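Changelog-linked ticket: shikimate-3-phosphate example.
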Amino acid sequence: MTMTISPSKPLSGTVALPGDKSLSHRSALFATLAAGHSRIENFLISGVTSRMLDALTRMSIPWKLEGTTLTVDGKGIGGFSVPFSPLNCGNSATTIRFLAGALAASGTPAVLDGSEGLRRRPMDRIILPLQQMGVNIKGNNGFAPISLGVSQLPLKGGTYIVPVSSAQVKSCLLLAGLSAREPVTVEEPGFSRDHTERMLAGMGVSIHSEKKVIDGSPRYLTHLIPPSTNYSLKPLNMTIPGDFSSAAFLIVAALITPGSEITLKNIGLNATRTGLLDVLLSMGASIQIVARPSSNGEPVGDLTVRHSPLKGININGEQVVRMIDEFPIFAVAAAYAEGASIVKDASELRLKESDRISSLVAELKNLGADVEESTDGFTIHGHGGLIGGEMNPHGDHRLAMSMAIAGLASASPVTIQQPEIMDESFPGFANTLSGIGADIKVNSENTVKESVQA
Ligand code: S3P
């Protein structure tokens, strides 16, 4: 299958987006830790979240989806049954790392595995600190599959220093910390997304974060006091806002497509996630933000975006973590800008769904960009546009969607191979884009089977 995106007329309209991926993963899993009935609206139904739900089924946790409303009957911390087969986390690093933490807290033995792509992603970053906490866990030379044996509870508390800012690692250790004897502190060099902290606090867990300067460098510390009983967490009753990381594709779509103006409703605007907004505003983007009532401690707003001339920008340091998932779409904006954009301190991108430095640079070059790779980032010399062509998404949903957006304003169409990968995080991507005026055709085996042209 391929998807072809042709240079577009102006985009216009108002769009509501599927629920946030990070909040969907957390809500499904954290609901199991409460004793009682949780109700979660606007849950993201996608490739990666279906892996989490499937894992819950395999651990005998009752859940139900009606439309996009998920209900879960949690059994409290330690309420998992020993899974009846290995838990297949597919391509989802969030699923495998979160499950490892929750299984550690419940002392439940299990095997966690996933796709070839997931098996290439580093797992020592959770295995080693979990072992220090007393968890009986081992990987395959630092990679999946991961095996958890029976662990002696309670686990050991204390301070765990995470060398790379990662909300997946932080969340894994905080989840394990729910069954620790003493308080747990996770220390990171940058402040990774804090959805876990906000959601656990809403469920009654004593948890807070602080910034400290240690040996002259800023450090971000998150402290958790384990709850007194296995059953003391409150069930969730929440509506998940639209995913900012999905909104990012549409924001850049409107910015680069001449004459466009679109509004995105009820988007999650947690400041630990919205680094791209600040960057685009500094590049000259016209984006109006209207705040809406927050949802379970998560800021929400509507965004109105108009086509804008953009100029290049440099990104480094702590800014990187606040937009860690948005570099592929940022790179498209930078290619449509005038002037150089230099990204540094972003070597973590090499450990995502693909090596997002080399795959991004290769695919942007295919579309005519003037771009160079460095060890920890890339430089794009923006010349106000791209030529178009065919691209390989390297099994990476965000790369596929970013290059699709590039096709809206390139000189000739962009064709994406294996566009099905987009469903990992944003099912309905093509329909959403065509709904605001984009010209998208999905081709099956070289025959045009379906056209989603507006
Ligand atoms: C996520 C954290 C990020 C991000 C991923 C989702 C989360 O990963 O890339 O898409 O929900 O906590 P890292 O924490 O490994 O950077």
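Closing comment: Example verified and attached. The two ends are 20 Å apart (CA to CA). Residues 93-106 form the longest helix (14 residues).
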